[in-house]
Design a protein that fits this description.
80 residues; mainly alpha; 3 helices; 0% strand
Length: 80
């Protein structure tokens, strides 16, 4: 059940990050990848800052922040 919840959170986080960053989602598979990688980045950043998240909402917010960072970093390389 934990993997299913992680996939759902990844899709939600990737979709919302896509909406915030460029105004449109990227599609189901890319949203999932962006969300999962964003979750890892967000968890790493939050851990470095000593912050902890609780519950699904906190995990989604952390994943969105990580996904936004990922999309921002990717956009830096795409402009070159």
């Amino acid at each position: 059940m934990g993997i299913l919840i992680s996939i759902i959170i990844g899709i939600i986080a990737g979709f919302l990050a896509g909406q915030i960053f460029r105004g449109a989602g990227f599609g189901l598979i890319v949203n999932l990848i962006v969300g999962i990688v964003g979750s890892v980045i967000g968890g790493w950043i939050f851990g470095m800052l000593g912050l902890a998240v609780n519950g699904i909402l906190g995990t989604i917010i952390m994943s969105i922040i990580g996904a936004l960072l990922l999309l921002w970093i990717v956009s830096l390389f795409r402009r070159v």
